[in-house]
Amino acid sequence: MLKPQSTATRGLINLDGLWRFALDAADNPQPWTRRLPGRLEAAVPASYNDLFTDAAIRDHIGWVWYQREVEVPLGWAGERIVVRLDSATHEGRVYVGDALVAEHVGGYTPFAADITEHVTPGERFRLTVGVSNVLTNETIPPGKVAVGMSGKESLTYLHDFYNYAGLARSVWLCSVPEVSVDDVTIVTRVDGGTGLVDYSVDLTGEGEVSVVLRDEEGEVVASAEGASGTLTVDAVHLWQPGAAYLYELEIEALADGDTRDIYRLPVGVRTVEVKGAEFLINGEPFYFTGFGKHEDTAVRGKGHDDAYLVHDFQLMEWIGANSFRTSHYPYAEEVYEFADRHGIVVIDETAAVGLNNEVAAGLTGQQAPPTFSDEACNDASQAALAQHVRELIARDKNHPSVVMWCLTNETASNDPASRAYFEPIVELARELDPTRPLTYAAVMFANPDNDNLADLFDVICLNRYYGWYVTPGDLGTAENFLERELRMWADKYGKPLMMTEYGADTMSGMHSVWDQPWTEEYQDDLLATYHRVFDRIPEFVGEQVWNFADFQTSIGIHRVDGNKKGVFTRDRRPKSVARTLRKRWSEIGTTKPAEG
Prior knowledge:
Strand content: 25-35%
Protein name: Beta-glucuronidase
Pfam family, one: Glyco_hydro_2
Keywords: Glycosidase, Hydrolase
Family: Belongs to the glycosyl hydrolase 2 family.
Strand order of the largest sheet: 25-26-27-28-29-30-31-32
GO molecular function: beta-glucuronidase activity
CATH architecture of the largest domain: Alpha-Beta Barrel
Radius of gyration: 24 Å
């Protein structure tokens, strides 16, 4: 789905701001039919959970309602009028007046509705959006609603981050011509010093297509007629990690010789491939340094914030990081656009986190029910994940910063039944985008002897916590365990290996002269232990620390005010290890360290 934009042929109104807000209530069964009761207002974009002091709102399970009045510009007469939500976590329903115009399941990808027949240019209408935070075994990610002895509902889930909900990204009102650009697919190749830009354009309505490619100075470097073709760029400027260069593709839709629509798309010319045990960008070996991240800030929850976007990227530049993973869901589109412009490499991940009942068993000590079964991850769950993959790739396929798709995080890949569940998902992802490598992040329960998925993927990503959850406080044993396991993966598969999670919870300001978990010194020593091992493994292609910053998790005794594995605190102050990483990563750049 193309992101809406304002051009000479398209109108765009941002509907962010303060909306009326109410919880779903039995005495108001159709809240979209009238003004929402009460005086609450909620910010959009933002998760609603931390905005209010009422625990009943933070702990609410089910639907909440947002509402505002919207005026359609008089000049939009004769155009198609569309309302677009960048996300609604985890399920959304959109009403224009009393009419249901859109429904969507999946909390991190956009959806839209053509509302032309429901509105009148020059007049106002009531826009109501319902959002549900309910998770089931058939949603991605999964969860479960239970009723306790007191009769109170509770929502349990297996992902270790807070289940923030609401309208965390922007809402838009758009005008689109009857003949318009509906979708664009860009694939780039390089032949010597020449760039090749394959393009394909889908139109709504009957028309012709003309395209022009301009460089960063606005000079035309290539043009073509037709809905698909290849543009040739002599002396091409490549998009490279740390040195982004973006061309602009202007697409013109015409009918009867007249311009009907214009859409512009940034284009980065680059190649990505896996060759043997190397990960190549533009034919050169690339070594990932950076983080797993989260969309998480105080008060806003998962609400997108441009100020934090800029500051987070500044911190990544300062520390020498060249990449990050969108753990554990697709991020706001503005994040990818910023990465495109600033040369940061992205591993783009689905929301398939928590597909592993053994995680819950490890915390409770109880026998885990099978993860892949009729009662847990079943055919409906698989279908939901397939749709999520379709929407993710459709949204992010044209971003040069995205170099790899990560299809799941810490699933039960040691369960033989995982093969039948994920093999069709892998095949679908390759069909939708044959140009990017695929990966998954393997949980500690999965090892080279019992994992059932590694041969399906191009890169093996591992989440490992030796020295923390395993052998805590004993870094010598942790080093031995880690090196032995990495060599086993390398010997069995001969594929690129990287670490997508490693780290230790650390309380900022806590210190000790001993190897004491939770201290800043222990976090530093643990990472140094891992780095020694990484540098000894020839097949190793990257390190992404868990996590960029401390983040909120569900309430419980296993976390004290959230996960503290951040290199930065939740308010983005550096812990001691930040300067250690800065030294290492600044020296590495994008090249694998010499073997020790």
